[in-house]
Design a protein that fits this description.
Helix content: 40-55%
Strand order of the largest sheet: 9-8-7-10-11-12-15
Shape: globular
Number of helices: 24
Bound molecules: 1,4-dihydronicotinamide adenine dinucleotide
Strand content: 5-15%
Largest sheet: 7 strands, mixed
């Protein structure tokens, strides 16, 4: 690879820096003799040093800060580290450590990453986007910090989320990092603590009325079309209502998706597909009760209904299998506080604020926690589900860890080993009465990086729900039967790159079948996806003519 950077400038570029792995010829040609130790190490040696240094850190937050620092200096070694052991490193660069990192974002901040776009910049968004050094951006992950994980409005501290989320495109599915742009859209915050924190890094203003926010998002999305025409906008961690309304506003016009709505739905659907395999039933035989009717809950309910319709049900029949419960009780037809997108799930039923009573009356086969309320699936809830069902399905999806509606240990113990369980975060195996249970992690990182890779490789024009349904099937079908027997609903993380390549190939096939691809159809879809996968390896570097001999 021929480069024009030279000397210290080269060493300061994380995408080119090899730190102690430059060859003698590179040292001479690139003007860095004497600027780095006089050795040529292999990446394996560098990796062992990273592992040793990580070994001295005592908390995951310290490991997170160390890894981000590594990324700031040597991108290739960072990805080599994370991809060498995804099961170990994903929880550090993303959930659950990222939650803590966001809470302290302004305090642990060291160096800029991604872009920050404040509402005060209205009218000049296009010019600001042009400040980004890469001209071919394929994904922008954007948040306004409105609802970060289950932690609420974190304002500018939410900027850690798009940064972490985009790292997973690369670490899990091999999307090359140079095409990814994390973006924080600053519309203020209603978080009093941050408004008064001297180290807070955002506008010290409360949030504006919805129309004002949406008109700024309009300017942003339209500017992206012009500045980065092949870009897909990934919305992340907006409040539930904004998430759904903004998705509806743009999905048929531009290449956009919302991971909290569609990605969560995809991964949960994958778990349900495998739960019914374990039970020997079909998705359409099941009845679902959600705790939480926000962006994750509604997104899942909608995608689930689309999957049921694809299996031959009418939309009305499909919706009649789905009940929801939120902070004000069961969604039912007399409620007057519901938002338009919640209405299809408000059935005729007596009002109740008692979740156990709702279980006893509705008799769901599956309960799904997307409420942000840790411990909400109490012993009484799990026991009620176990009385009604031979194998109750319990999905406790809220995160971070302390927000999970129940732990796997609780689900297996209270159901006497009958529950089929998955959580939003990773829990260790549970040993109960001589049996080992493997709680799966219903984490979107099985879905959105694979869908992202398919979009990247095919240059898809739009992102559809069908792509997430296909991804769900792709993930579900990669769990081996012996692991399914131990209750594992998702593939092991150790092999996540291969899992996502296979999933991406299925989604890419659908993109071509739907006429949404902007590149010619390849003969071998898996090989086509593989040809786009980033590898964390140092390229041989040569000096461009103009810098030679400097
Ligand atoms: P949201 O804020 O849009 O919705 C939360 C919902 O929970 C609302 O309907 C609210 O009324 C309800 N709720 C709050 N307190 C309640 C209570 N005491 N009882 C019953 N219902 C209550 O949030 P969103 O985006 O839907 O996310 C919910 C959770 O799902 C978060 O913890 C998030 O981290 C998690 N999530 C998990 C994912 C995964 O892959 N496992 C992906 C996306 C979200």
């Amino acid at each position: 690879m021929t480069i024009s950077k030279h000397g210290i400038d080269l060493l300061r570029d994380p995408s080119l820096n090899k730190s102690t792995a430059f060859t003698e010829a590179e040292n001479r040609a690139l003007g860095i003799v004497g600027l780095v130790p006089d050795v040529t190490e292999t990446m394996d040696v560098q990796l062992s040093r990273v592992m040793a240094q990580l070994g001295h850190k005592t908390t995951d937050l310290e490991r997170y800060i160390y890894l981000v620092n590594l990324l700031d200096h040597n991108e290739t070694l960072f990805y080599r580290t994370v991809m060498s052991d995804p099961a170990r490193f994903l929880p550090i660069v993303y959930d659950p450590t990222i939650g803590e990192a966001c809470l302290k974002f302004g305090h642990i901040y060291r160096q800029t990453r991604g872009m920050y776009l404040s509402m005060t910049r209205r009218g000049s968004v296009k010019e600001i986007l042009r400040n980004w050094p890469q001209k071919d951006v394929r994904f922008i992950c954007v948040t306004d910090g409105g609802r970060i994980l289950g932690l609420g409005d974190l304002g500018a501290n939410g900027a850690g989320i798009p940064i972490g989320k985009l790292q997973l495109y690369t670490a899990c599915a091999g999307v090359p990092p140079q095409y990814l742009l994390p973006m924080y859209l600053d519309a203020g915050t209603n978080n009093e603590q941050y408004l008064h924190d001297p180290l807070y890094l955002g506008m010290r203003k409360t949030r504006p009325p919805t129309e004002e926010l949406y008109s700024f998002v309009d300017e942003f999305v339209e500017a992206v079309q012009e500045v980065f025409p092949k870009c897909c906008v990934h919305f992340e961690d907006w409040t539930g209502v904004d998430a759904i309304h903004l998705l509806e506003r743009y999905r048929d016009k531009y290449c956009v998706y919302n991971d909290d709505v569609q990605g969560t739905a995809g991964i949960t659907l994958a778990g349900m597909i495998n739960a019914v395999k374990i039970k020997g039933t079909r998705l359409k035989d099941e009845k679902y009760l959600f705790l939480g009717a926000g962006s994750a809950g509604i997104g899942l309910a909608n995608l689930l209904c689309s999957a049921l319709v694809a299996q031959g049900m009418t939309l009305k029949e499909a919706q009649s299998r789905v009940y929801m419960f939120d902070i004000n009780g069961l969604l039912e037809s007399t409620r007057t506080d519901l938002v338009d997108f919640q209405r299809p799930y408000a059935h005729r039923h007596a009002p109740t604020r008692d979740f156990v009573a709702a279980i006893e009356s509705i008799k769901p086969t599956t309960i799904i926690g997307v409420s942000t309320v840790g411990g909400a699936f109490t012993q009484a809830v799990i026991e009620a589900m176990s009385r009604i069902n031979e194998r109750p399905v319990v999905l406790a999806l809220s995160n971070p860890t302390e927000k999970a509606e129940c732990t796997p240990e609780q689900a297996y113990t209270w159901s006497k080993g009958k529950a089929i369980y998955a959580a939003g975060v990773q829990f260790p195996p549970v040993h109960l009465n001589g049996q080992t249970f493997l709680p799966g992690q219903a984490n979107n990182f099985y879905i959105f990086p694979a869908v992202g890779m398919a979009i990247f490789a095919t240059q898809a024009l739009r992102v559809t729900d069908e792509m997430f349904i296909e991804a769900a099937g792709g993930v579900a079908d990669q769990v081996a039967p012996e692991l399914l027997r131990q209750g594992l609903l998702y593939p092991p993380q150790a092999n996540i790159l291969e899992t996502e390549i296979q999933t991406a190939a299925r989604v890419a096939t659908l993109v071509f079948d739907s006429g949404l691809a902007r590149v010619p159809r390849p003969a071998d879809m898996v090989a086509f996806i593989r040809s786009h996968v980033y590898k964390p390896e140092y390229p041989a570097l040569a000096a461009a003519e103009a810098t030679r001999g400097r």
